[in-house]
Amino acid sequence: MADSEFPTGTLMKGKRGLVMGVANKNSIAWGIAQQLHAQGAELAFSYQDEALEKRVRPLVESLGNEPFMVTADVTNDESMDACFAALKEKWGQLDFLVHAIAFAGKDELVGSFTHNTSRLGFQRAMDISAFSFVDAARRASEMMPSKEDGGGAMVSLTYLGSERVVPNYNVMGVAKAALEASTRYIARDLGPQGIRVNAISAGPMRTLAMAGISGGRTLMKTGKDWSMLKEDTTMEGVAGSALYLLSDLGKSCTGEVLHVDAGFHAVGVPDIEE
Ligand code: NAD
After folding, report:
1. Domain with 102 in it: what CATH number?
2. How far is the CA of 148 from the centre of ligand 1 (A)?
3. Residues identified as active-site
């Protein structure tokens, strides 16, 4: 989707934020970045490693501004230190954070959760997909303005597998439950500073992360067929919700997990044809 297809405006004018989790043009983080950019935000991008830099740089450059990109492997404290030190040096202050990062091993995203989850796999999924938000939120909050000066906003990305059992989602569902609970705890801690912290629970979308889940195609099809809107979750919908939560439109909204999945989460029984 081209930048121009995202509604333009000034809702994010004067705001600077870090977007974590762009891997390629299909990344949810990239859709959100384009929407925020179209509303005037100034963006910094963190990417996992040098290998991804080549893919991310042309995207960031396509936004037209001087690219501000930093490496941040969320499993590595020194890498996170360096990322936030670079941000501090460049901007001093941060207004928002987008966290769109998750990982679990392929072997763990298939079959029996009970039998296929190793200690290491559990720790890794939790570390990368849940703790990384706690860590990034703490670091970002230390750079955000006081409540009187506007506070800040953060958003993370989650999925319904945290609340309900989804075949093969397994350890990632458990990590997403931890991410959502963390979102609420962080929201309470940072509330007095005027920082709002929310999560978007997106329906299935075709991304690299989705490709790692066994049976992803069926998840996509069911996500559409059983949804209330009878359509796939769209990047515009997810990015628009991020814009709402990160801009002043989202005032008073914090500690929330917003479902953006064409209504799928609220369906108890799919259509009955008799
Ligand atoms: P994606 O593969 O484009 O993004 C995942 C990102 O996580 C990548 O940029 C990857 O580099 C990053 N990452 C993984 N390990 C990392 C590490 N150690 N350090 C730094 N970065 C690391 O896929 P996506 O679908 O856009 O995923 C973004 C977020 O959205 C994830 O939290 C995912 O769980 C969530 N989500 C995705 C869907 C979906 O259907 N695609 C649905 C709901 C929620």
Report:
1. 3.40.50.720
2. 33
3. 159, 169
Q: At what angle do helices 235-246 and 28-38 cross, to 10 degrees?
A: 60
In short, whether 205's Cβ falls inside 6 Å of ligand 1 is yes
pLDDT tens by residue, 130-141: 999 999 999 999
- Is there a domain that residue 272 lies in? no
pLDDT tens profile 150-163 = 999 999 999 999 99
Position 273 in a domain: no
Does a structural domain hold residue 186?
A: yes
Q: What is the identity of the amino acid at 77?
A: D
Query: What pLDDT, in 10s, does the model give residues 77-117?
Result: 999 999 999 999 999 999 999 999 999 999 999 999 999 99
Domain with 86 in it: 3-262
* Global confidence as pTM: 0.97
State how many domains the chain has: 1
Contacts with 156 (C-beta within 8 Å, 6 or more apart), sequence order: 99, 100, 133, 179, 183, 198, 199, 200
Residue 173 resides in a domain? yes
CA of 227 relative to ligand 1 center, distance in Å:
23
Distance 23 CA to ligand 1 centre (A): 8
Closest ligand 1 atom, residue 74 Cα: 19
Residue 41 · residue 15 · CB < 8 Å:
yes
**Which atom of ligand 1 approaches the CA of 179 most closely?**
32
